[in-house]
Amino acid sequence: MNTTTPARTAAPWWAGAVAGFLAAASGVAVGTGVAALLQGVPSPIESVGNRAIDYAPPFLKEFAVKQFGTADKPILIGGVVVTLAILAMVAGVIGRSKPRLAVGAVALIGVIAVAAAAIDRTTTASRALTLIPSVLTLAVSLAVLIVLLGTLTQLNRKLESLPAGFDRRKFLKVALGASALVVVGGVVGRVYGSAAAAASRAGIRLPGAAIAAPPIPAGVQLDLKGITPFVTPNRDFYRVDTALRVPDVPAEGWNLRIHGMVDKELNLSYRDIMNMPLVENRITLTCVSNEVGGRYLGNAAWLGVLTKDLLEMAGVQSGADAIKSTSADRWTAGTPLDVVTDERNAMLAIGMNGEPLPLEHGFPARLVVPGLYGFVSATKWLVDIEVTRFSDFKGYWTTRDYTAEAPIKFSSRIDVPKSFQSFPRDKVRLGGVAWAQTVGIEQVEIKIDDGPWEIATLGAEDNLETWRQWMWQWDDATEGTHKATIRATNKNGKTQTSERARIRPNGTTGWHSVQFRVE
Ligand SMILES: Nc1nc2c(c(=O)[nH]1)N[C@H]1C(S)=C(S)[C@@H](COP(=O)(O)O)O[C@H]1N2
Ligand SMILES: [Mo]
């Protein structure tokens, strides 16, 4: 026996947990930092999250969008991180007595991350480049784990733990080193993540529209506190997409390819688009996931080029009936060819409310198609348009139980009152918005409790592709709790059905109602 080494005690469980945690954290931090330095490469956590999004059953996604709205992505990332941290800590605790088991478990998690990166289709980089972060994560995690476990128990070369215990001093040293890796990786990841597109956007001055939108008519905005503004400011515009990290697509180097059943394939740069005569149109965009009364719609002025002009430049061949549009993160939508070539203002947009598209709304370019839900038309971070046939492909959501074609179901919403708002008896004024893009809103009616339908006052009409405000005053209001119900009629003479339809496969129907009080 060697009596000169200080006696070692067995490592406490928390030291095992710290070892497992630091192994995973340093690996992930290094992978994330390196991913941020590589253009268009997702971090290991994002790749795992992207897989989770792709494999999740549609009902779960619907639930997530409904419950968490735009916060669904941070929540998913948080879920992946917490799960990983727990697994790694458990592995570390077990690793005190069974180091091989712990190393095997961490290796397995690392391999899952590598596999997720290998099949991550959201990347714009090469396959080999995409694998670098997760392979580094795997290597760093294993190395840190093995060294730390070695300080907890003595390990022989076969990773078998020998009875002698905890080397506190060495543990602290290695733990500090691993923590430094976590900090450096984290800082690099933060500083360099999606920096290229932001810098590119900041340098852009959009030209004015050659064909400007007509001025907004007076009277589109009704004078009622709490009513949704007629034009939605960019920062309030709803966001729905599958991107965990906003794709980092600088305008320089961006290329839009238009190909397929065309006479002449086009490759257009951002500059090419800016040099075309641009048009501006106000269009209200709507998401299929909008619940009755929901907030997943917004109205903006979009600046860009009409798709019918782009497709005319390319020359569409006979037999085609669809365009398949693809984003930088490999999301796809299928849109009927006649819709993007008819008289409506379907456009390739580069500007939104006087600014270059915000990063979350598709910078540098996206599609906006009046009258269709976003999932079959509004491709953000657009890079490719293929003229094709519906029989030859399916868009992202169409492979997930949604229909291939999805015109917007016209609808209406009560903005005022909010649920259980109360009014003084002489000031019961209700208001909101109604939309029937490309057709137009003819009439909005309000019903109090089981009373008769009363006709609301409509705000001025901007164009048939935007929503319209409405307002109604209840003159002989009675005290108590009441329910207001709304229904709209479009310019084809159709009135909204009271029948409830769910989101899947092609959007909700039903009347919105709100409870309120009169005092
Ligand atoms: N690349 C990409 N584009 C996309 C999506 C997406 O997931 N990825 N979602 C679509 C859906 S479902 C809608 S409703 C609109 C929403 O656009 P917004 O986020 O700018 O409001 O974008 C569409 N474009
Ligand atoms: Mo959507």
TrEMBL record:
Tagged with keyword Transmembrane: yes
Transmembrane region(s): 12-38, 75-94, 101-119, 131-150, 171-192
InterPro entries per UniProt: Ig_E-set, OxRdtase_Mopterin-bd_dom, OxRdtase_Mopterin-bd_sf
Domain Oxidoreductase molybdopterin-binding: 245-397
Superkingdom per UniProt: Bacteria
Pfam families: Oxidored_molyb
Membrane among keywords: yes
Keywords noted in UniProt: Membrane, Transmembrane, Transmembrane helix
Gene3D superfamilies: 2.60.40.650, Oxidoreductase, molybdopterin-binding domain
Protein name: DMSO/TMAO reductase YedYZ molybdopterin-dependent catalytic subunit
Organism per entry: Aeromicrobium panaciterrae
